[in-house]
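Shipment paperwork, digital attachment
Item: protein structure file
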Amino acid sequence: MRYVNFSQLRSFHAVALTGNVTSAARLLHVSQPTVTTQLKQLEETYGVELVFRMHRGVRLAPVGEALHKLTMRIFALEEEALNVLTDASDLDMGQLSVGAVGPFFSIKLLTEYNRLYPGVKVSLTTSNSSDILKKLLDFQVDVAIIGNVEANPLLTIYPISKHPVVLLVGESHPWFGKKSAKLSELENMKVVYREEGSETRKVLEVALANRGITPSVVMEVNREAVREAALQGLGIGVLSQAEFRPGENLHMIPINDCEIFTEAFMVCLKERSDMRKIKSFLNLSDLIDPFGLHDASKRKEDPEFS
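Attachment content:
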């Protein structure tokens, strides 16, 4: 593959612009001998004469005039490239991909981010915690908002909120209108679980196992289908309170004899945590942080946190 030495080309361009080597060196912030050497090397490499050396400065030779027309375009494009990179680093443009376990509080963050940085195009992918974490590790998303995640040397993890796990039933269920329930009351009851990989499901299963309680799992579905299954009377749905949306025919029941909750974390790859578009998003964590958990001193990568 043929290529031209860019440093030599830059020196020629500066000489062509300024009309002499001294001014070209000053423009490039290099020494005069450096410009002289690079210009001479460019001529010798291709066996051409680019400038006529005059007593006071230089004058472009015919080949130099033709080359200068090209270098004007080349370095104009370089300036455009610098503008693109600068604008992106200043959050005036670019893209940010966010993966989240649900749109509920992530939408609030995305709305605020869009208000602050309207030039950045933001996309949202939703799934369960396991899937979103895989996407983060595969560079498919820039930032993840997920449930409980284990400390990992590859990750920077900010705890941002806690949400109780609640039960929900439709109006045809005997528990409709029930103010609260004990965990033991789920023994042999028909329950609609979230799919494998759901943090809500994980924490409930741990709590049930610790107490030796075995419900009758009739269905395993995604978040949206839990609500619909409960409405249809298929069983008791299980969701995080943050995911519950009231409806005339749907009733939420808190668990009153034990604390079962999911935690939300903002997560990014540690090697990318200083990228401006990612860092600026992480700084919005206080919008959904009623407990002050996002303090950098409590990042889960720290031994004291884990």
